[in-house]
Amino acid sequence: MAPPVNIRPIRFWPRATYRMHTPLRDIETEADIAYFLDRFYARVRQNPELGYLFDGVAQVDWPTHLPKIQAFWSSLLLGTNSYQGQPMRPHFELAQKAPIRPGHFDQWLALFSQTLAECFAGERANEACLRAQSIAAVMQSRLHLTGLLQTE
């Protein structure tokens, strides 16, 4: 004789608790990139460690910085070639003022991918996530080679 099986009762939720889910669309325009980056950097600034680095140490001028970052991502994802600059320079300058650790990159990437997944889905969104991972790896490598990456 088989042992008795414990079966949990199925819990039915009232219809009112179900939310309709609208499928997310892919990144298509510069406005989409601006929308995502506004939300992402709001979270970065709320993060105790990252917010301190961006606002406390680097003292980022957000009205100037966000359009540059938007141009950077627009160039990567939409091929606009609108970014002019040296993206590594500010990170080297920051690392000379305060310790940057691999954990900071992990936090940045986690916020990036979480925010992106809440805003968009599709080929360009996936590419943005892969590019962010690649960029973080390159930055860590260059900071390490110059002795500016702090080991945890």
Automatic annotation (TrEMBL):
CDD domains: TrHb3_P. GO terms for molecular function: heme binding; metal ion binding; oxygen binding. The keyword DNA-binding does not apply. It comes from the Bacteria. Keywords: Heme, Iron, Metal-binding, Transport. This is Hemoglobin. It comes from Fibrella aestuarina BUZ 2. The lineage of its organism: Bacteria, Pseudomonadati, Bacteroidota, Cytophagia, Cytophagales.
